[in-house]
User: What shape does this take?
Amino acid sequence: MIRTALFALGAFAMPLAVAANPAQPAQATQAFSNPFFEAKTNKYGAPAFDRIRPEHFRPAFYEGMRQHKAEIEAIANAKTAPTFDNTILAMEKAGLFLDDVSAVFFNMTSANSSAPIRAIQREMGPVMAAHSDSIRLNPKLFARVQAVYDKRSSLRTPEQRRLVERVYQGFVRSGAKLNPEQKARVSEINQRLSTLSTNFSQKVLADTNQFALVLETEADRAGLPQFFLDAALEAGRARGMPGKHVVTLSRSSVEPFLELSTSRAMREKAWRGWVLRGDNNDAEDTKATASEIVTLRQERAAILGYAHHAAFTLDDTMAKTPANVSALLNGVWEPAKAAVTRDAAEYLELAKSQGFKGDKLEPWDWRFYAEQKRRAKYNLNEDEVKPYFSLDSMLDAQFWVANQLFGLKFKEITGTVPVYHPDVRVWDVMEADGRHIGLFYGDFFSRESKQGGAWMSSYQGQDRVNGNLKPMVVNVLNYTKAPAGKPTLLSYNDAETLFHEFGHGLHGLLSNVAYPSLAGTAVSRDFVEFPAQIYEHWLGQRQVLERFARHSDTGAAMPKELLDKVMAARNHDQGFATVEFLSSALVDMDVHSQPNLPKGFDMGAFEKESLARIGMPREIVMRHRPTHFGHIFSGGYSAGYYSYMWSEVLDADGFRAFTETGDIFNKDVAKRLRTFVYGGGNSRDAAEAYRQYRGRDPDPKALLEMRGLADGTSNN
Ligand SMILES: [Zn+2]
Assistant: This one.
């Protein structure tokens, strides 16, 4: 996942808000020291995290908006005829101060939040939405953009034409062509949506943190291997319960617990905590918030001339229409459900052979018996594999792959660049010849101040217009930290997530475009997962695992026999994973494809009906239920969660460009991958970028084959 703070004028920014001036008067000077107003002292120009305090953000935001507004006014009110340089390029140069503040701030709200940060977030969300709309809905500015757009065929470069088209589309999609009353309403909606999405994310974080399952007795801890107990002890310490073993609602805590705990009662407790996030009918319940978000989006889509929010959102993606998305998702849904039906019968049979009473598995049994089945079928278990996947060795692996593909070099410089938390590490990223490319930050461990999940974000994008600025990207993960002195051990899935986010990171780092609005990950939402997901493929390659899957105690390579089993078991339980994902994507599309949901509709009831419509298997729960579905209610993936699978069509087919040559590091293919995918940003249409990389359109069969769900292949 990526998180962006596109409150300034990114060409792909979603419409945010029209408004009066912010209530707070602008402050041009600062009476006290504020790092945002001072030159950055470190040699990379990195954010001064060591000196930034919550009280610095508010004045910096208002000053940033004041500057940006003045710059935009000057462009909009210019007396000269509109040109690319005095309009589009001038906008690319505007709002830099605000970009800096926003990038740092919105990374803090997700990765290192605190009560003061959350208060500022609640205040600034609608103010920033209004600021954005005051630009997007400025009629004089739009008239100039339109004038440049109308003459775009005479522009010097294809990238200039692309930029003008993207900026123009951004204005139109924000409502630049609406009448004044409509603009006012859209802006009101945007400000309210900003508040609601903040509420949503803050409630989910609070609800996640208020859960802690303490494993008091030996019986509570039954079946748990040492690595899990170590991490649970560390979680207890972090939660102020030293000496206690604690399961938290971080995915890397609760999922292995559900796989490994032999205490069915404790599994049920953990599972309930996990799936009921945001759905406890208390102060942190999110159902009403989600419902209001949906109906406001529905109203905004109607004002903008679309049948519903999904039609509006998809109009600006590779997929283009809800029908195209449905065709993809439904084509995978039935084979995935069939795989689940087969697996459910097998798991139940296995469970009964182990003394399970009853005639059906419950959702808190699924992961446990899937793991039991994996052990039985492949003679493989999680605690045998895990010591070979230490965080450090997997970091080495992801860097090595980037070196093999693109010649990149990574030098850890933690301690020389300011960070916002002592766990954050930093690398200098260089070309083969040592030229500086950018900075890569890694923030790997779960903590209460961090939102759940994993994502990439940027403190600064690649920018040639404003002084050849180098990218600074961050990967934020939620691994359970091992106690001091012990290595943090990952599951294979955890390692895949590491590679995934690093793929996003490379998309930011390798950006090589002329205009900052088109840089890095500012691409269509259903293309943006492609560079992340294709990178996951290298983790699963023998050449990589042989080299980097090393025992954390002995340093020994994984025995060939074990490696063979890991490779063979990669598609184990794929039906579950696919159904878990697809149900989330289908409900997202369903709720955002409704034209007439009444105000205040019951999100809980809608979820039930929607799942009934698709015939959701009873043993499986959505990967993200609506009550904690941050992607769609606070993360910019609304009517867009399908994007992962859309991108998977590309990565399944796209990785074959390497395997077909017999060399997973083939230099020619890697060069095209870098030029058209990792480096290309949004400088060309996404489908065209793929064709330039692959030489043709993607073959959709590759996806089902990769998931082991194609006709004639085993589901395992
Ligand atoms: Zn992603």
In short: The first strand starts at residue 213 and ends at 214. The two ends are 27 Å apart (CA to CA).
